[in-house]
Design goal:
The chain is α+β, with helices and mostly antiparallel strands. The protein is 41% helix and 11% strand. Helix 1 packs across helix 3, helix 5 crosses helix 7 and helix 5 packs across helix 9.
Length: 239
């Protein structure tokens, strides 16, 4: 198959896709007689990535596969086309997500030890419904509590290929809470500049909110004096 036409096929498929596409999925575009191998597809994806280097869209390799997405500097312009408010997540939700992302696998009890407050079921449900966390096992011990970890969908929404791309943090136990609060803010800032690729191409699912996570602004409360997240915090965490 002609190399230029091969690139056009891959480019078209990725621009029209609603989700990231793996090389295995992209290979289904071609028949056996086309003689297009996985290695050839990978090389053409790299070539496409280079060709789009100076454009408003970029081709990125994520945990879920390859996709086109708008560059961060384009977001303020694209948002003017859709000025609706993004869904809001409470500080409790984002801190819980940050703890799971950087400390996984963790139990609900581990999260409560770090945050200093109990974790409401609504917070866990919100993150599970958003497909950002999942149960990846159970800890040996009384009750065999569930172990939580992040999903590939979380990585895709954050624009990451693997967890190794998360910023490094200090491991000092005394700094856990401070770090995770900062990491929650980092997640909010990083996700706020991301959109699904076809949002820019106006072909994405209207319900997709990738990259539009907004942290609810609230007063800084001393969590060491609290034993549970407030009802107001739980309501803010609902999507």
């Amino acid at each position: 198959m002609d190399e230029l036409f091969l690139k056009q096929v891959l480019e078209t498929a990725l621009l029209c896709a609603n989700e990231p596409m793996r090389v295995g999925e992209l290979s289904k575009l071609f028949s056996e007689t086309d003689g297009v191998t996985s290695d050839v597809i990978k090389q053409q994806l790299i070539n496409l990535q280079s060709e789009w280097a100076d454009k408003g869209l970029e081709l990125v390799d994520l945990a879920g596969g390859w996709r086109f997405q708008s560059r961060p500097e384009m977001q303020k312009y694209l948002e003017r086309l859709n000025p609706e408010k993004p869904p809001k997540y409470s500080r409790a939700v984002m801190e819980t997500l940050a703890i799971i992302a950087w400390r996984q696998p963790v139990t609900r009890g581990d999260i409560e030890d770090i945050r200093g407050v109990s974790v409401s079921s609504q917070i866990i449900k919100t993150l599970e419904d958003r497909d950002w966390i999942e149960v990846i096992g159970h800890k040996e011990g009384p009750g065999r509590p569930a172990l939580f970890g992040t999903t590939k969908h979380f990585l895709d929404d954050m624009g990451l290929k693997s967890l190794s791309q998360l910023p490094a943090i200090e491991a000092d136990a005394e700094l856990l809470m401070a770090n995770d609060t900062e990491l929650a803010q980092l997640l909010q800032e990083q996700s706020a500049q991301l959109k699904l690729p076809n949002e820019a191409a106006q072909t994405t699912d209207a319900e997709s909110v990738s990259g539009n996570v907004e942290l609810v602004q609230s007063e800084q409360v001393d969590t060491t004096e609290s034993t549970t997240d407030s009802d107001e915090d739980e309501k803010a965490s609902e999507v």
